[in-house]
Specification:
alpha/beta; Aminopeptidase; Alpha-Beta Plaits
Length: about 475
């Protein structure tokens, strides 16, 4: 048996013998809810009591760093250095999760334990992101145990605040660039395009969150006494929204659209089929940017969404004119969009369309858009490796439709960035009933084992940037 095949057989046994389930269950048990107060002990314990022992056993030297943001979780940097002449890969995972929503899962499932039902393994963090970095570390171990060396150097960064927007990550990496001198970045997060279709993406759309608010008067007032005399802020706000986006989803704010698609990106997207998979909603082929394919709309254009719109008291409506209206919106945007101009352009748009009284507020720092060209040597190398293990062509997405802190790795650290996701779009990752798929997880273990194995063979574009 060839050594590569031996490593693949070893990772199959790791899964079939229950070691993956045991390892993941141990990690799921940590209640690392970074968006809830009082999670500090769990966040630190995940690094100190779970990650460091496993990484140390694999020959990593580990160090925990405080977050530059005092209200955010720490960082773990683990390094395994074999030789200066070997390629160095930076990898990443986040050990924090969103709130567990205890008591809201089907059949009162415990979010902090793995519950297996058919092909689904339920538990908070199974998909986002404990399951994904557990797969990647297990694959590293399989290569190391088979070859008795990796054949490359590894820098592993674990953060504990990704679900809060990665506070402090950019400042930390900017201040410690010396810790992250690498040739390529390879990590896992997000969904495959279809559960059964191995996928690679090389960046992500950015996200710009904002609030629009209109306060018309103090308190609600009886509509029988004051209707026709007082401004209804909900009506004004609804007209503001319709000035920003038409009834078919086309963005109307001047400067918010981005319709320029590089040929290499358009070619890669043309091979993709979007909108399918288990639990997927029915897409509207007539929604979004006109004259674009569904794939181009979600991967190569800007999209504006209303996340919430409230006026009055929706849970207990009164026959009164409400005092205020508030909209929570965001723009997903691609490379080429000037994010610093998004707020000024919105202000100009609202003023020009007769809504100067609507206040706009940036909700938090944006995640910036990134994209590595699909023709980049490192992208082509990774695609070839994954195709070899898969036995057929994988799906290549130039950038994820969602958002990740990839700008830190691509722009701050200057690395070619490659993501190999191990989840799928219907995994309920931020809701009750989060889960991974057994078949997808076993496939992912093999793909990552093959990828790490090929990285140590020596035939890599080490000097390509």
């Amino acid at each position: 048996m060839a050594k590569r095949d031996e490593a693949l057989a070893r990772i199959d046994s790791y899964f079939d013998d229950g070691h993956f389930e045991t390892e993941l269950a141990r990690r799921i048990a940590f209640k690392t809810e970074s968006n809830l107060a009082g999670s500090e002990t769990a966040l630190a314990s995940y690094l100190e009591d779970e990650m460091i022992p496993d990484l140390t056993a694999l020959g990593f030297v580990c160090e925990i760093f405080p977050n530059p943001r005092q209200d955010a979780g720490p960082f773990l940097v683990a390094r395994r250095h074999e030789c200066d002449d070997l390629p160095t890969v930076m990898t990443y995972g986040h050990g924090d999760v969103v709130a567990g929503y205890d008591g809201q899962w089907d059949n009162n499932m415990n979010p902090w334990k793995i519950t297996k039902k058919g092909d689904r393994w339920y538990g908070r963090g199974t998909a986002d992101n404990k399951g994904q970095h557990t797969i990647n570390l297990a694959a590293l171990r399989s290569v190391l145990e088979t070859r008795e060396s990796l054949g490359f150097n590894v820098i592993f960064l674990v953060e504990m605040g990704e679900e809060r927007g990665s506070p402090g990550l950019k400042d930390f990496c900017t201040a410690h660039k010396d810790l992250f001198q690498a040739d390529v970045f390879i990590a896992s997060d997000g969904p495959r395009i279809h559960p059964d279709k191995p996928t690679i993406f090389m960046g992500s759309r950015g996200v710009f969150n904002f609030i629009m608010r209109l306060d018309s008067h103090d308190g609600g007032h009886h509509s029988g006494n004051w209707g026709g005399l007082l401004t209804n802020p909900g009506v004004i706000m609804s007209h503001a929204i319709t000035s920003m986006i038409d009834k078919k989803g086309k963005i109307l704010v001047e400067g918010w659209r981005n319709t320029e698609i590089p040929d290499s990106v358009r070619s890669a997207i043309a091979k993709l089929e979007v909108g399918g998979g288990e639990n997927a909603p029915q897409i509207n082929p007539n929604w979004g940017e006109p004259e674009m394919t569904p794939g181009e709309r979600v991967f190569a254009s800007n999209t504006f969404e209303i996340r919430a719109f409230e006026t009055g008291n929706p849970k207990s409506p009164a026959n009164a004119i409400p005092p205020s209206a508030v909209v929570y919106g965001h723009l997903r945007y691609v490379v080429g969009t000037d994010v610093d101009q998004l707020m000024p352009l919105l202000r100009l748009h609202l003023d020009q369309h007769g809504f100067p009284d609507i206040e706009i507020i940036g909700e938090r720092d944006p995640m910036y858009a990134t994209r590595l060209d699909p023709e980049h040597p490192w992208a082509q190398w990774a695609i070839a490796s994954l195709n070899k293990t898969n036995g057929a062509s994988i799906s290549v997405i130039p950038n994820l439709g969602g958002s990740l802190p990839n700008d830190v790795f691509a722009d701050v650290l200057g690395l070619p960035t490659i993501w190999v996701p191990h989840s799928y779009a219907g995994c309920s990752q931020h809701a009750p009933n989060e889960h991974i798929l057994e078949k997808t997880s076993k496939s992912a273990l093999r793909l990552m084992t093959g990828l790490w194995w090929d990285l140590g063979v020596g035939d890599t574009p080490k000097n390509a940037k």
